[in-house]
Design goal:
- The structure is a homodimer.
- The first copy, chain A, is built from four helices and three strands; from the N terminus they run αβααββα.
- The first copy, chain A, has a single domain, classed as Arc Repressor Mutant, subunit A.
- In chain A, a hairpin with a 2-residue loop joins β2 and β3.
- By secondary structure, chain A is an alpha+beta fold.
- Chains A and B meet through α1 and α4 of A and α1 and α4 of B.
- Chain A binds a DNA duplex through α3 and β3.
Amino acid sequence: MSGQALKGHLDLLILAVVAGDPAHGYAVIEGLRSRSGDVFDLPEGTVYPALHRLEKSGLLRSEWSIVGGRRRRTYQLTKKGERSLSAEWHKWDNFSTAVAKVLGGTPWPATT
Amino acid sequence: MSGQALKGHLDLLILAVVAGDPAHGYAVIEGLRSRSGDVFDLPEGTVYPALHRLEKSGLLRSEWSIVGGRRRRTYQLTKKGERSLSAEWHKWDNFSTAVAKVLGGTPWPATT
DNA sequence: ATTGACACCTAGCAATACTGGGTGTAGTAA
DNA sequence: TTACTACACCCAGTATTGCTAGGTGTCAAT
């Protein structure tokens, strides 16, 4: 159901989840799913590469640990990541408002 | 300023503009720009191929005409296009609501 | 004569979400 | 003991799609 609608917005979503409190990849997926009310059910192949990308750009920092015999990589926001989250947030606001305006200009008959 | 944020949402926007009243490519660009309050200032290389794609999928139908010595291709929604607009609209609603939920779960200090 | 708005087009590039594969641990059910 | 599920990580390759950068041509204004 996720489709490819979140192109360009995935980073914002991930940063938002990790900002809440540091989380490892699997927990990020869970967080996105639960917080969105099951709308975002992202495959691992989407989230893990995104996390790597974000770390490479210096927006996230990670640490390995072992919990219950399983190795985990826990991510948290860097200063740069916080700034980026703020900026992306504003961009989203701007973007979604603009979409609403465009849609608002279109008459649409009683939704069947 | 447009960035690549509208990936996956461009079709919705175009359909919405054309639904208002049939328009040619250049007018679609103008419509998006004015309706969005200058947020969406899309290059021709983005819009024209999208229009072709939409026509190819049967969501739009076009007709050539000549106005003031210039040839125009005017697009209008097909029945299928109307259904698609409705569906995409709902998807957008769903999507943007979900994003808001995810963001809402994140505490954010006083915006500097 | 040249510039700018109008009006169309396309090939190739770049970014990025996803598919489909892989590794390994722990717990539970058969 | 075996099998299956949840947990937890990884990567190569694909596909979609918006954009860059080029092109053609008309008309009005400077």
